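Researcher: Good morning. I'm working through a list of sequences from a screen, and I'd like to move beyond sequence-only analysis. For each chain I'm collecting a predicted structure so we can compare shapes side by side. This is the next one on the list. No need for commentary yet; just the structure.
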Amino acid sequence: MANYNIDAQKQVTYDAIVIGSGISGGWAAKELCEKGLKTLVLERGRIVEHVKDYPTMNDDPWDMELRGAVGPEDRQKRKTLARAGFLGEANKHFFANDEDNPYTEVKPFLWVRAHQMGGRSLVWGKQCYRWSDLDFEANAKDGYGVDWPIRYKDIAPWYEYVEKYAGISGEALGLPQLPDSHFLPPMELNCVEKEVKARIEKNHPGRHMIIGRAAHLTEPLNGRGKCQYRNRCGRGCPYGAYFSSNAVTLPAAHATGNLTIRPYSIVQSIIYDDEKGKATGVRVIDSETNDVIEYKAKIIFCNASTLSTTQILMNSVSKRFENGLGNDSGELGHNLMDHTYRVGAMGTVEGHEDSYYKGRRPNGIYIPRYVNIDEKTKTDKFVRGFGFQGGGGRAGWGAGANKESFGGDFKDGLMKPGPWEFFITGFGECLPYHENKVSLDKNSLDKWGQPTLAIDCEFKENEKAINKQIQIDAVDMLEKAGIKDIVGFDNEHEPGYGIHEMGTARMGKDPKTSVLNATNQVHAAKNVFVTDGACMTSSSCVNPSLTYMAITARAANHAVSELNKKNL
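Model: Good morning. Structure tokens for this chain:
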């Protein structure tokens, strides 16, 4: 069943417009449509139908010309993804063409984009963790950034709301720094992970190692099948077992009869009416024809992804907003964050040679934050904290890729499992620095004549100190767990590698220091909502997408309530 309607040319007026169809945009569309609003979703890229448009979902390496690798032409077209190390034949079609979508790196920054229906919800890592008041209160307590206008109690009911619909598997721990979700049954740790878990928790009281909390169904839900342990998620899942806009929220929106999706629609700007004191619509460039079209709506949700949303707001100038829509504070474009990444340790685990594991589990382990939680765990080396992701497995046939061998014995050897290996890598919190920013580069235009973004962002001393401690702790935990041949690593990288870019249009209590209020409305244009990563006031150290979902559902509920009261 198609979950789109591209007959948008005949109609230009809607109740609501949603810019973007990724994780937050899909949720905005679902909530607004189910509450009775005729909703237009503007998608920059092409239509991707669930299952139908997943061309590599069942392909094995030998089904692809270069066994999954890509040639120089593809690497040039998608050079940011190639830099990140995630580019392959199986997933290249779900990522943006960098030649058509340039940006300027004032300082090195990896901006990974996915321009199609569903956005990065088709290719995300699916790790889902609630924030706690440790996160929402951090800015106020240590003085970095501005205070969040919400607390955990404000968002907790909405976490549960989206979890029940999306389907999050995991186990409850009862930790104050990592609140439990509404869980489906957890995936299982393998035999080596169970052993390492027991040793880490014995040697380090207060630390916990659990299976990752992930948007993978471990039992059927709402017509979606459970995970088949294929680990081909980034190609699109034919079972709908992991959460994506295409498999979950957009079909729900479509079922209401209130949804219209217009693909190939580059939002040039949001139109603000000085006399009415509010936004009245958006200006769109058709990426195929270059036609400019204006669509009107009572409310507008910005969900183009962090930097694209801010780019649109900056480009939305008027007599009232000469420096970009909602930029009275001067904070639009500032306080860009990402997570530190690619730091940790690995080694081999002795024993269990007679054991293996079933399938290819698309999930790993998680060690929640254990530093700077309270006075007992406080350190003077840095503020905030970090967690670990990772996992254990046996080396397989891929180990032969770097061996100069051939023949029958070589082939037979590859059919035997190698040693057990275990690794952990840290995700560290990045502080909100005003000087980490993006701006419009009017001297560098894209193929549609629009100003591109210049990104000026770097990790600073606090992030470097966190990374140093991540490696120390990773090596220490593995050594005490009896793991052999341990190698600590710090693959130094620029921001963007975590693909968790956040901030640049932050929420806050004071219009003088923030762009959005407690319900994600632009302070001075309250019918414009921003609920993607741009709204974040701090970054925590956990994957942010679950929080985007909850914030979006909460804001949509508020928007419809205010609309019904004729306040918008």
